[in-house]
Amino acid sequence: MSLPSPTSENRAVVTGASSGIGTALAADLAARGYSLILVARRGEVLTELAQRLTLAHGITAEVRAVDLAERTARGALVEELSARNIAILCNNAGIATFGAVADLDLGYERAQMELNAVAVHDLTLAVLPGMIARGSGGILISGSAAGNMPIPNNATYAASKAFANTFSESLRGELKGSGVHVTLLAPGPVRTEAPDPTEASIVDRMVPDFMWVTSESTAKQSIDALARNKMRVVPGLISKGMSVAGQYGPRSFTAPIAGAFYKKLGG
Ligand SMILES: NC(=O)c1ccc[n+]([C@@H]2O[C@H](COP(=O)([O-])OP(=O)(O)OC[C@H]3O[C@@H](n4cnc5c(N)ncnc54)[C@H](OP(=O)(O)O)[C@@H]3O)[C@@H](O)[C@H]2O)c1
């Protein structure tokens, strides 16, 4: 089975479409002919993207400016999506914090859990019954290589992405033979924009240019993988290295190394 063909009624939903990998996913899906529902908080950025993709590809692009970390606002979107013909859902919006969790803002840590984990669960469960009934659909979940291992100084993010990784791969097993594809995108660092040399992070400074993967290639690899119902996409060499170390390295060994590295990111 492949993904549902784009029609005038069905939609591909992309959360976090106002930036980075989400913008690239929306552009890739539009180029494949899918009409879109673009979700993020910054409605003006989404509206500009919707106009650009409509003009370039002759698709329809609807904008939903929603704070997905906020339960009431998210609930309205969940209700809408559960009643519509959603061909593809890209659960991509996500945020990260760095530093010791006790020192971080509690409200923002909670919002991170809501966005990275609970919203992924809610939106997936909203579209799933329709996809199963139609016998076709695609769900892409943006987890992370960080979700494969314990990471001190990145605790909420790593744990929320552990949820995303495990939920995606578990769900895929349940849906075998249903016609509904589920793929996990579990990248390490993806360069979503050229870094400002004066503000480059330690990751920007340490990773040579040729080892970076772009949002555009990540998006293409992800949608190609979703079409083939691949379990997991890990784009680029660094991501693959992190993935192997995180999944197969002893946790007592990888946790302090990752923790020391992420402490520098927090500082
Ligand atoms: N880039 C990487 O190196 C990397 C590596 C591993 C995993 N990932 C994962 O891949 C996904 C995309 O990463 P990215 O680097 O492309 O992210 P990004 O450029 O920082 O964009 C994040 C997106 O999420 C949206 N967002 C943030 N808070 C939101 C909220 N409360 N409600 C709704 N939307 C919200 C943002 O839009 P608004 O600000 O307009 O709301 C934006 O569109 C994330 O889940 C991330 O964890 C990224």
Taken in chain order, the helices and strands follow as: EHEHEHEHEHEEHEHEHH
Q: Are there runs of 5+ residues with pLDDT below 50, and where? A: none
Strand content: 5-15%
SS elements, strand count: 9
Shape from CA axes?
globular
Biggest pleated sheet: 7 strands, parallel
**Helical element count?**
9
Per CATH, the superfamily is NAD(P)-binding Rossmann-like Domain
Mean pLDDT metric: 95
Spatial order of strands in the largest sheet: 3-2-1-4-5-6-9
Bound chemical compounds: NADP nicotinamide-adenine-dinucleotide phosphate
Topology:
Elements: E1 11-15, H1 20-31, E2 36-40, H2 43-57, E3 61-65, H3 71-82, E4 86-91, H4 106-134, E5 137-142, H5 155-174, E6 180-185, E7 190-191, H6 202-206, E8 213-214, H7 215-227, E9 232-233, H8 237-248, H9 251-266
Parallel strand pairs: 1-2, 1-4, 2-3, 4-5, 5-6, 6-9, 7-8
Helix pairs in contact: 1-2, 1-7, 3-4, 4-5
The structure holds NADP nicotinamide-adenine-dinucleotide phosphate.
Concise account of the structure shown:
With 267 residues, the protein is of the alpha/beta class. The chain contains nine helices and nine strands.
Give a verbal description of the structure.
By secondary structure, this protein is an alpha/beta fold. It has one domain (11-266): NAD(P)-binding Rossmann-like Domain (Rossmann fold, 3-Layer(aba) Sandwich). Helix content is 50%, strand content 15%. The chain contains nine helices and nine strands. The chain has helices at 20-31, 43-57, 71-82, 106-134, 155-174, 202-206, 215-227, 237-248, 251-266; strands at 11-15, 36-40, 61-65, 86-91, 137-142, 180-185, 190-191, 213-214, 232-233. The strands form two sheets. The protein has a seven-stranded parallel β-sheet, with helices on both faces. The protein has a two-stranded parallel ribbon with strand order 7-8. Helix 1 (20-31) runs parallel beside helix 2 (43-57). The termini are far apart. The model has no long low-confidence stretch (mean pLDDT 95). The site of NADP nicotinamide-adenine-dinucleotide phosphate has 26 residues, from helix 1.
